[in-house]
Amino acid sequence: MDRRQLSALAHADHPISAPLSDSTVEHLLHRAIRGQDDHLLDLGCGDGTWLLRALQAHGGVTAVGVDISGEGFDHVLSEAARLGLEDRLELRRQDVAEYRSTRKADLVLSVGAAYAFGGLLQTLDAAREHLAEDGMFLLGDCFWEREPDADVRAEMENGPQKFADLPTTVAQVVADGWTPIYGHISTMAEWDEYQWCWTGTLAQWALDNPEHPASGLAHQMSAAHRTSWLGGYRGFLGFVVLLLRRTPPPASTEVS
């Protein structure tokens, strides 16, 4: 069991891989799905839980999820089969940056997966490529609630993705040709529930499986994550979900 598998295990009690409550997810999907026959594409879908919930609530919707991990796919596909939804859900194990769709989506989702594309603007470009002309994009990404100290910033921005404050984040999205039509900012309660589930689920697995070769690593990952959160970015790092549509080009002004 490697770190990717352990990370998937940490989400067992909070399968939405983001600081969002079940009611928030339900509300966001209700706002984003406009037709009963919409086609959905989730780029960086995790185990596919977002799509399974969308299919349960919206009869006729079809969905494709793409994720490089594939952890949890078997469980979600089995659950889809139990619910009679297997013919409407496809999960593909593939690098999202390399995926090319054969059908334009009415709704593209990418929640907490901007790192897979290299950052916010690259994620917007990817969504545009897969989206139907009048489609919508449900984007979830982090931002800085407050300016962090240098050590926290360095830890959270140790890859290609960098974060900004919320006004700057939204301004970047707008400047790239998108109009926000709805949004949700994760509450502290949503953050705390997500993080306690992540660290606690992994720690409990380690305690319940002391003889497993990965038990020690699971305990270390849980402790390190908890320390980083409680002693570092808690109250500094925010999370926003934006429901976006393409901004139409300005009308041309003809001089007679």
TrEMBL record:
One of its GO terms (biological process) is methylation. The keyword Transferase applies. The keyword Repeat does not apply. Residues 37-160 form the Methyltransferase domain. GO terms for molecular function: methyltransferase activity. Gene3D superfamilies: Vaccinia Virus protein VP39. Belongs to the CFA/CMAS family. CDD domains: AdoMet_MTases. SUPFAM superfamilies: S-adenosyl-L-methionine-dependent methyltransferases. Keywords: Lipid metabolism, Methyltransferase, S-adenosyl-L-methionine, Transferase. InterPro entries: CFA/CMAS (IPR050723), Methyltranfer_dom (IPR025714), SAM-dependent_MTases_sf (IPR029063). It holds the Pfam family Methyltransf_31. This is Methyltransferase domain-containing protein.
